[in-house]
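Lab notebook, bench 4. Still working through the backlog of constructs that have no structural model yet. Next entry is a single chain of 667 residues. Request: give me the structure tokens for it.
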Amino acid sequence: MGPAARPAPPTERELDMKHKIAAALAALTALSALQCAEPQPGHTVSVGVAKSSDTDPRKAHWDDAKPAVEIATTQPAAGAVRMPAEAAPWRKRRVRVEFMNSSQVAAYLKAGGDMAVLPIGAVAAPGPDLPAGAPTFNVHATAVLLAERWHALAFPPIPYAFAGPTSDLPGTVSISHDAALAYTRKVIESLLDGGFKRVVVLCGRAHSRQVLSLTRTIYRDRRQLVIPCWANLLPDSNEVVEALGFRPADDIRTLASLRILGHPGVFEPGAGPSPGGSASGAAELRSRMGKAGLTAPALAASVHEGLAVRTSIKPADVDKAIRIMRRQARKYDAMPAVYARYLRQMADLEAFAPWSLQRWDKAVAACRYDAIPEDDETVFRPGMDKDAADVFVASSQFPDEAQPDYQRKHRAEFMTAREMAERMKDDPVAILPCGAFEMHGPHGLLGTDTFEAHGNAVVTAKRWNAIVFPPIAYTYAGATERYPGTVSVSHYEVADYVKAVASSLLKAGFRRVCIMWVHAPGRSTEELVVQDLLHEEGKVVFTCHPWLLRGLVEKLGYGGGEDIWTLSGLKILGHPGVFVVDEPEDVGVRKLPFHTMVEFSAMSSSTAWYMGLPTHHLRVRRCVKSGDEDKVIPIMRESAKHYDEAPKLMSEYLQHVRQAADGRRAQ
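Model written out:
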């Protein structure tokens, strides 16, 4: 008797209706897990804290009984800062994962949501008067707009990559393809292992081939499909040119993206020196080579080469560009459905491919020409196609560190190459903040450690005459790895990535590079970084862990903690009202999950461990109230004075290292 015949794989027609119904229900349920009521035009709302419902764990309810930051949808008193709807705190908490807590991500995943959007940017000025963070701003804003339409979650961008032609210009941080792709791969794999079955990697056209190669490699090794996407929501098309009134370029894209991300006023046309920009002889030569079928790596000849910022752009043009970007985002509405269908097709193909070559050939033929069925539509949020009203935030909600002038002096991503070249004459310290992206209790934000490190760096920068570079958020998480939303990369991959970034800063002319790492397991990684750079490459970088809450107990009656750090850091970074701590649920006391860990510690020992409960990591204390950050930020500024001698000590130590090296060579 022969072997039993294997059943034929289900056809697309047989599975189509089942998959469509399941996808629609999952999208609607996932939406309800994150949905919060938006204000109607003409009303003032208060931002509240998310709580998990006792009756339905899939839903996150928004408690606005205690006002935190007053935000109006019609213009209030003079001096208020106008922002697009995407920059409102309730929109940030619904789409941008760094402003969500682990409980919300868990609710999203439990409700059937499974889609993550990961932007990949660069710190590289595309022109003399464009901010160095422009490539990251553009792809991050695109991720936010698309994620909201896709019912997906937008993760923080990976900021450092190979910068290409601008690698040697002031303000640019360029690392090798190998370092960037190895780090990016680990972040993607952490998302896949964390429950996100669909991961879309957004990048600029310059990085599209490298990202495509990476996603193909991931499929080869893991049999998991990741989709690279280089969507441009302000393309140079006739449709957009006609709607906008002029040809779009990186200047208008950056202006619109910064407003969507909640940073209006940091970059304005005409705010800096008169626009320059011209094509170099090398560029003209490359153009002639192209006509002859030749290619060569491009290099920018000087800080003056590149796109000039057009001073003719008006605020109304930026508003129009944002509306165009929202409309352009609709063109990608089919992505969730197409992605889900392709996963099914590939799974079916994988399932019956070994059976026979005929079935394999049939499957390939069926997959080669794939059209979207007319009735296969994505479920959209009611009214989402309408342009949402702008919101207005009182200017008093933005401390000095969040003002455009301060940001353009001390935060690299908001500086132009021309401004960076001028600042480099003062021999500034380069600060590289490093945090983590992990669960911080039921209410603490996933970006807590990164906000703390970044906020500390921005406050310290004024005392040190330093320039703060964009933070590295994805590091080794450790004990929180199995909680929703946590993204964890091994010590060694993180160390290689940080070493590449630090080396690029040294190559760019910064004599003193200081890493500020807040996350506790990061202390092991930073030791790898500083030791390897010194002993393998002869380069010296520093680490610093400033404690900027000196005297907090005396002034506020409670000690430092990640809850007050988060409140203060977010406000310093220009995101007031995103995290609210008033009257949190009673989540118990913070303690180690196993008493064994205490016993290990008593014997000067430790080991790897996991947190058994979310409350083992962070408890939002009842003593901390919204508004306390206004009292804490002055304390942080005062505490920063205790570290005033650090830049001088760095210089002395570098001199000591040089003298020691000269002495060894003389022997």
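Notes after review: Residues 12-34 form the longest helix (23 residues). The mean pLDDT is 78. Flag for follow-up if needed.
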